[in-house]
Write a structure and sequence with these properties.
- The complex is a heterotrimer.
- In chain A, about 70% of the residues lie in helices and about 0% in strands.
- Chain A is built from 13 helices and no strands.
- The radius of gyration of chain A is 22 Å and the shape is elongated.
- Chain B is about 35% helix and about 20% strand.
- Chain B is α+β, with helices and mostly antiparallel strands.
- Classes of the chains: A mainly alpha, B alpha+beta, C mainly alpha.
- At the B-C interface, helix 1, helix 2, helix 8 and helix 14 of B face helix 2, helix 3, helix 5, helix 7 and helix 8 of C.
Chain lengths: ~325, ~550, ~300
């Protein structure tokens, strides 16, 4: 019982506004400590623990898995072609033929949401992967090499973290124009600094560990130490961070879509569908409610999963 | 130091605890509702009594709304923010529309005018006894000042309106100090000389951009003219009294207006970017006037819910779809004609605008001088289009680009999505390519843009404003990315501007329209639309102004109580 | 203490310069000629050239940058392309509205966050815990514009408790404040909950309980006091996310604040306005972080002892 009591400690939520650094600082402190305490159980055990302890997290994982499957197999799952227009059947109420009705061009809303999952999940995944890759490499370098390298990288990170992130994304989109690729770039640019900070602090403590000292003394190359020895020990925290950065990217894209600088039609992200659909709020509310609900489910699921993973991957909390 | 901080801390904590205490009672329900119920009574009372930021008591004013704030009320420096200028200034002549939609030019600050036989000299006899809102008399000097300023003012964007006046080019380039073609004959007579006959000149003078300014006040105001309401004066029915950026514009009745004081005490124009918010405000009685052009999606519902509160008039503008002659395979007339036939324009108009408007078949839209129903029609005929493509050697189709401007409205983007599907039905693979606004504009100006859809709305009521803009000469057709190649036709377009006989001129314009659109299939005319407004129950006599743009004239409107 | 403050301030300066430089470069690589875009259709090419020259756009970027920084130091962010007004003045006019909105939103965030956090902590892993945390989380899980729209629809349009838009009375500000504040409530709720849970395991709470104090009294008097320390310091930092969220909230509710200016800057491609708004907002955030850091250092006994 004691263990699960602290499951929600200082959680970052994927907020529209991409919350301030205080949250990140806290995660950082926790993760720093967790790194110091080292590994214990195997991955499998940990996941089992999570499923046992936290039903909500397990349930969220199942939901996300199903959505992911639906996105991958969209052509099979979707009842209609998501781009097929039928101007005579526009704005139809939900019915047996169209479970969520049709949109302003007579396209099946359910099919569009299923296909939209591809785009929204991609928007969640790709920039998160890119920004975390950048952040991880820079964080490793900063922590491992220290000195000037550390100073320069961390000042750069300070600059990035000082921006209100949505505004920064807006500026990037202003410069480069809308479209999927540019969204990836904008959101990657915005988010790497947080990861870099966390990885750096973990690297700083790991670098003093015996196994690193040992590897060093037998002449293992620096890059090998960084990526073979230090990186794997950062993985638990990176995974937690990963599940928390995805929803924030999805929501950021929705905000950018609202401002007309997000995804561009006909590729419909959930955010864009909600923005376009909200014009019909009074007569055909499902057009905006359905994609918004999709966003909400995914964002909440990622958050609950993140909570769960955090409990089991975070030895600091477990040992308490 | 420590002590102070602990005090701050204690204070903050107390605040936190107070909140906790308050929330405790409502903790079984949802917090949002819990808090809001504290102020549950009478929120709808705010209408008609908006802020006092301008220092003017706005009680009883009409409430209007715009979705973006204006840049300036100096109409020489804007090509779109005409709402305030329309109401605070007057022009030499105005356009009047009768119930049938036919329009004519009527006297305003110019009581009458003579035009010389060669169509080069316009002599205006000005109305006497008209005063600017600051008390200054309106005289010929003000007209001359206004014309000169239009061409020389820093940031002026309407220089084209006076391009045809003698000496305009010299004044812009700086080789002349004053506009040669404008002569003050006496206090109430001004003579304008053109460099060549230009039949649309009078129509041109009705453009909001040619509003008449007070020479003294405007000069004194410098760059604050149009920015600071206090120094922005005209002869118009309303005074500009307040402007809080991104919030509201306030106009107040000009008691001394020469046509008689307006019935409305004033107008508050709220700036609300979100169209759903606008809709809810209107339905809650927070607005008296709603331009449904901003909220087309709500128009269907409004027509049902408030059938008696909808006012409409033609939006004099043509929506067109281009085909760049320099891009393969659009140099082929059969391909262009096939595209004309492949697009189901009625279906698009029905789907996106509830059919409010009409499918067009030429260059001059419904409501414009020169529009006539007798011209050839383009019919939707996908089979015929396929056959034409076959003949042209493109039976297996081809790929083309639909260039979307990111700043365009959602409906334009939707139209492109529909066009893409319709073209696919005849075997043409169209891809939508999204451009940001400036790239779109630059590519278009370079003449290299793929097909796009856009709308040209009238600056003034004359076919010249349409045909000359797109097919006037090589440069004009290039910067629209049409690249129409027939120079003989274009020189006819250019020459037609100078035909003094009105009937002959219109006949020539109509012949040119036939040639360009039906013989050469130079673009796909899409549709022209109706402009719908919703008015609250207390608004009387609101009429859409003749104009392509979304400005409104508050003179003549009244509120019943 | 004073030394530490000074040190933090000195560290902030290069960050600030970096921010300005980054924004400056990003906005300068925009494709297209800003003047052409801004002037529209009816203008003569000669005029465009003349204006570019007047705005100094023909000078090398480095010259433009130093000019900008020099002017910004004097509080002059240049002149807006579109509005032909001093950007500093425009920002200062809008600033009070954003502050008002943010403060009210912070109050809402605290109200929802702390209440939900306390209830959740007391009823750990029970239904009420999940319900309250879920409620607090909902605000961050939906796109802000949808939250705003739904609030408007229910409380202004259907129930008519509040006006649909506006900012000139506290009543008009309630809905915008909830839309914006709810968005931050989730993090506050989680922090409150976890800190409270942690503190409640401490010995002194157990002692208090053992003494037979009523549960509610224990929580409020002892646990909360301790648990709130880090939450209090979040306040200044929340301001950063508030400012980001305000961009959308202000647009939906028609509040003439700083967020609207950023949107204006994007929509009308008004570079000086966008630049000024972002730089100004960033300065605010850096100051906010500075205050939060110092506050945290002072309030948190562990850090204070360590320092």
């Amino acid at each position: 019982m004691e263990k699960t009591m602290t499951e929600d400690k200082n959680q970052v939520v994927g907020s529209e506004a991409m919350d301030g650094q205080r949250d990140k600082e806290h995660i950082r402190e926790d993760l720093e400590l967790s790194a110091q305490l080292g590994e214990s159980d195997s991955w499998e055990d940990k996941l089992k623990t999570m499923v046992r302890q936290n039903k909500l997290a397990a349930f969220s994982a199942v939901i996300l898995f199903l959505i992911f499957l639906a996105a991958v197999f969209a052509p099979v799952v979707a009842p209609y072609d998501h781009l097929a227009q039928s101007l005579t059947d526009r704005l139809q109420d939900p019915s047996a033929a169209h479970l969520l009705g049709t949109d302003e061009l007579g396209r099946d809303v359910l099919s569009r949401i299923i296909y939209g999952a591809r785009i929204s999940l991609t928007i969640g995944l790709v920039p998160t992967l890119i920004s975390m890759a950048i952040g991880t490499v820079l964080g490793l370098c900063a922590g491992f090499y220290g000195g000037k390298v550390d100073f320069i990288i961390m000042r750069l990170a300070d600059v990035m973290l000082a921006f209100p992130s949505l505004l920064l994304a807006m500026v990037v989109m202003y410069t480069m124009g809308g479209g999927l690729i540019n969204i990836f770039i904008a959101l990657s640019l915005v988010n790497w600094a947080g990861t870099a900070r966390i990885v750096r602090s973990q690297t700083l403590s790991l670098k003093e560990k015996e196994f690193v000292e040992a590897a060093r003394s037998i002449g293992v190359k620096k890059w090998t130490i960084m990526f073979r020895h230090i990186l794997p020990n950062c993985l638990p925290s990176l995974i937690v961070l990963f599940t928390l950065n995805i929803p924030s990217a999805i929501l950021s894209e929705a905000s950018l879509s609202f401002l007309g600088i997000g995804a561009q039609p006909p590729s419909a992200s959930w955010g864009l569908m909600a923005v376009r659909g909200k014009k019909y709020l009074f007569s055909e509310p499902w057009l905006s409610i359905a994609p918004s609900a999709a966003i909400m489910i995914v964002v909440m699921a990622f958050n609950f999963l993140g909570d769960g993973l955090r409990d089991v991957l975070d030895p600091y909390l477990k040992e308490q | 130091m420590k002590r102070k901080l602990s005090l701050i801390l204690a204070g903050t904590l107390a605040f936190g605890l107070a909140l906790t205490g308050c929330g405790g009672g409502a903790s079984q329900g949802n917090e949002a509702g819990g808090e809001s119920s504290a102020s549950a009574s009478g929120a709808g009372e705010t209408s008609g009594s908006a802020g006092t930021a301008s220092g003017t008591d706005t009680a009883g004013f009409m409430m209007d709304v715009l979705n973006a704030d204006i840049q300036t009320a100096d109409v020489q420096k804007t090509s779109k923010d005409y709402t305030v200028p329309t109401n605070i200034y007057d022009r030499l002549v105005e356009i009047e529309v009768d119930d049938q939609g036919a329009s004519k030019i009527v006297p305003s600050l110019a009581e009458n005018w003579d035009i010389s036989g060669d169509g080069l000299e316009y002599t205006f006899h000005l109305r006497q006894g008209v005063k600017f809102q600051n008390g200054n008399d309106f005289t010929a000097e003000d007209v001359s000042y206004t014309f000169n300023r239009l061409l020389t003012v820093e940031g002026g964007v309407n220089t084209e309106l006076l391009d045809q006046v003698k000496g305009a080019a010299e004044l812009i380039e700086g080789s002349a100090d004053t506009l040669e073609g404008v002569e003050v004959v006496d206090d109430y007579t001004v003579k304008v000389t053109l460099k060549e006959p230009f039949a649309a000149f009078l129509s041109c003078l009705t453009a909001p951009g040619l509003s008449i300014y007070d020479s003294e006040a405007t000069e004194a105001a410098g760059d604050q003219f149009g920015m600071d309401p206090a120094v922005t004066v005209g002869t118009g029915p309303f005074k500009f009294v307040g402007w809080t950026f991104n919030d509201q514009l306030v106009l107040e009745r000009n008691e001394d207006y020469w046509r008689g004081a307006p019935q409305l005490p004033g107008v508050v124009i709220k700036i609300i970017p979100d169209t759903e918010t606008q809709t809810m405000m209107f339905e809650n009685g927070e607005l008296d006037l709603l331009d449904l052009d901003f909220v087309t999606d709500a128009a269907d519902r409004f027509l049902e819910t408030y059938p008696d509160q909808i006012v409409q008039g033609p939006r004099v503008g043509i929506t067109y779809f281009t085909m760049n002659f320099n891009i393969e395979p659009f140099q082929e007339v059969k391909v262009r004609r096939a595209v004309q036939m492949a697009i189901d324009r009625q279906a698009i108009l029905d789907a996106l605008y509830g059919g409010r408007g009409q499918v067009e078949h030429g260059i001059y839209p419904f409501g414009l001088i020169g529009f006539h129903d007798g011209k050839s029609k383009i019919s939707y005929d996908p089979e015929g289009a396929k056959a034409l493509l076959e003949e042209a050697g493109y039976g297996s189709g081809f790929t083309m680009e639909l260039a979307a401007d990111a700043s365009a409205s959602d409906t334009v983007t939707m139209a492109l999505e529909i066009i893409k599907e319709q073209l696919a039905a005849v075997g043409i693979q169209a891809e939508i390519k999204n451009y940001d606004e400036s790239t779109w504009l630059e590519t278009r100006k370079a003449g290299e843009l793929g097909s796009f859809m856009s709308t040209w709305t009238a600056d003034f009521n004359d076919p010249e404003n349409f045909i000359y803009t797109f097919f006037g000469n090589e440069e004009k057709t290039r910067i629209r990315s049409i690249n129409y190649p027939d120079t003989a036709v274009m020189s006819r377009v250019s020459k037609a501007r100078g035909i003094v006989n009105e009937d002959e001129r219109l006949a020539e314009y109509q012949a040119l329209e036939e040639k360009l659109i039906h013989e050469d299939a130079a673009w796909v005319p899409m549709y022209s639309r109706m402009h719908l407004w919703a008015v609250s129950e207390r608004v009387q006599n609101f009429k859409p102004v003749w104009s392509g743009v979304s400005d409104r004239m508050y003179y003549g409107v009244s509120l019943s109580e | 203490m004073l030394n530490k403050v000074l040190k933090r301030i000195v560290i902030s300066i290069p960050v600030l310069i970096g921010v300005v430089l980054a924004i400056f470069i990003m906005l300068r690589i925009v494709p297209g000629d800003p003047v052409t875009t801004m002037m529209g259709e009816h203008v003569n090419p000669a005029v465009i050239e003349k204006i570019s020259r007047e705005m100094g756009l023909d000078q090398p970027m480095i010259v433009q940058f130093f000019k900008y920084v020099f002017n910004a130091l004097r509080g002059d962010f240049g002149t807006s392309y579109r509005l032909n007004r001093n950007v500093t003045q425009i920002i200062l006019d809008a600033f009070p509205n954003t502050v008002k909105l943010s403060l009210m939103a912070a109050a809402v965030a605290w109200l929802i966050g702390i209440v939900a956090g306390i209830v959740a902590a007391v009823r750990q892993n029970k239904l009420l815990d999940r319900m309250f945390m879920g409620c607090a989380l909902m605000g961050v899980s939906m796109p802000v514009f949808m939250t705003a729209l739904i609030l408007q629809y229910v409380f202004a349009f259907k129930l008519k408790w509040f006006p649909v838009s506006g900012y000139d009375s506290w009543k008009a500000m309630v809905l915008p404040a909830i839309a914006l504040g709810w968005n931050s409530a989730g993090s506050i709720a989680r922090m409150t909950r976890s800190n409270l849970v942690e503190v409640m395991q401490n010995d002194f709470i157990r002692t208090a309980r053992a003494k037979g104090l009523r549960e509610k009294g224990v929580i409020i008097r002892h646990a909360l006091k301790n648990a709130m320390l880090p939450v209090v310091t979040m306040m200044a930092l929340q301001f950063s996310s508030m400012l980001s969220g305000a961009v959308l909230t202000e647009s939906v509710f028609g509040v003439p604040g700083i967020g609207r200016l950023a949107v204006n800057g994007i929509e009308t491609r008004d570079m000086p306005l966008l630049q000024g708004t972002v730089v100004f907002t960033t300065i605010l955030i850096i100051i906010g972080n500075l205050i939060a850091d110092l506050l945290y250092n002072v309030l948190d006994p562990r850090i204070r002892e360590g320092a």
